[in-house]
Amino acid sequence: MIEIKTSTLSDGEFNRGVFATRDIAKGELIHEAPVIAYPNDEHQYIDQTILADYAFEYGKNHSAILLGYGMLFNHSYTPNATYDINFDNHTFDFFAYTNIKAGEEILINYNGDVDDTDPLWFNK
């Protein structure tokens, strides 16, 4: 259903993004990304690495590094996908927010809420 390809939206070293290999219906589960969670007081160590740009909030007292395709979704303030944190399964579950066509890049809002337009660390 998804694959990693070169993205024109990513300006990082690797320029990767997640793309649909087939049409994906609104509400459809796209990916369940397992997490490696760690206490927020350990983030000072992650902050000294490139992983800091990929860490997600994971509840009130933890952050998480996502595995699988989780860290490769690029950001948009008009996303076609969203995610929910599944604490029981220790995953971030990515869903289609709109219908997504085959070949389209799958984008999430890094703020966590599809309607949140607060500036992010990379455009402040």
Automatic annotation (TrEMBL):
<dbReference type="InterPro" id="IPR046341">
    <property type="entry name" value="SET_dom_sf"/>
</dbReference>
<feature type="domain" description="SET">
    <location>
        <begin position="1"/>
        <end position="111"/>
    </location>
</feature>
<dbReference type="InterPro" id="IPR001214">
    <property type="entry name" value="SET_dom"/>
</dbReference>
<dbReference type="InterPro" id="IPR009207">
    <property type="entry name" value="SET7_MeTrfase"/>
</dbReference>
<protein>
    <submittedName>
        <fullName>SET domain-containing protein</fullName>
    </submittedName>
</protein>
<dbReference type="Pfam" id="PF00856">
    <property type="entry name" value="SET"/>
</dbReference>
